[in-house]
Amino acid sequence: xxxxxxxxxxxxxxxxxxxxxxxxxxxxxxxxxxxxxxxxxxxxxxxxxxxxxxxxxxxxxxxxxxxxxxxxxxxxxxxxxxxxxxxxxxxxxxxxxxxxxxxxxxxxxxxxxxxxxxxxxxxxxxxxxxxxxxxxxxxxxxxxxxxxxxxxxxxxxxxxxxxxxxxxxxxxxxxxxxxxxxxxxxxxxxxxxxxxxxxxxxxxxxxxxxxxxxxxxxxxxxxxxxxxxxxxxxxxxxxxxxxxxxxxxxxxxxxxxxxxxxxxxxxxxxxxxxxxxxxxxxxxxxxxxxxxxxxxxxxxxxxxxxxxxxxxx
Length: 313
Ligand code: MTE
Known about the structure:
Layout: H1 10-13, H2 16-31, H3 43-46, H4 66-70, H5 85-88, E1 98-103, E2 109-112, H6 113-119, E3 123-130, E4 135-145, H7 146-152, E5 161-166, E6 186-190, H8 191-194, E7 200-205, E8 208-209, E9 219-221, E10 234-240, H9 247-251, E11 275-278, E12 288-289, H10 297-300
Parallel strand pairs: 1-10, 4-11
Antiparallel strand pairs: 1-2, 3-4, 4-7, 5-6, 5-10, 7-8, 7-9, 11-12
């Protein structure tokens, strides 16, 4: 988010080997959607989550092409370059994977992700995704409601907020050797935001497991907030009484608020938020007008009644 290379052709800023490897990885993953296999079953049907049902909160929108979503990622643990992380993130081992649950709850512990997935039925949710850098896309996520998971740990009455933490491993996540952010990456939600039925824990997209660059094996998706709230590679969930300190808020509190609700009338110091560039749309396609709460106002506006959305950005 802090760097922009928009004016420089990608080939000139990306090492040639990384460029070639990235193309191969994205093409191989995307190929599953288009090729056919013998006998009988298409590759698309062989995808791990091909049979996951569509959930009731899924939007009736046409998703972006897989390449738009998997080939243009923000993952500072690997790189500040949106294309290099597709290659660098492949070094991450995503199994076994545990989630530590702690803080204000009756059932803390360390839980294996595969056990969590057995107890939380998956569904597909097509959601709009809006980055604070003023671009957007539509993604068919595979996941489960965060609320159902959190209730299993029995939060106490002191649990007013939930903090999420990403893995810290600078040997693999080479971007953590730089001081671009304070590591590990942390994010947080108010408990009612975390319990909202739209808030999703995603483990897949496009009928398959999440690509590593998109946050495998488990990430948060909060569709009415800017994308930086959607923390990737989660290893810890903590219930707490105080508002969590988040990575972006610590790095520039005037630019990245805790709430970060999509709001076209609150400009970021470097990006107007009134319009958004839709990824994959042609250069002559006009930008889309950004909607308050990213278009999810009828579902979420009621939880912010009485709050000044301009100062609590
Ligand atoms: N989570 C971690 N751990 N590290 C990151 O750098 N980037 C955030 C968010 N989650 C980020 C992260 C930002 S700025 C955005 S816009 C979204 O992930 C991008 O998600 P995507 O790369 O899947 O499009």
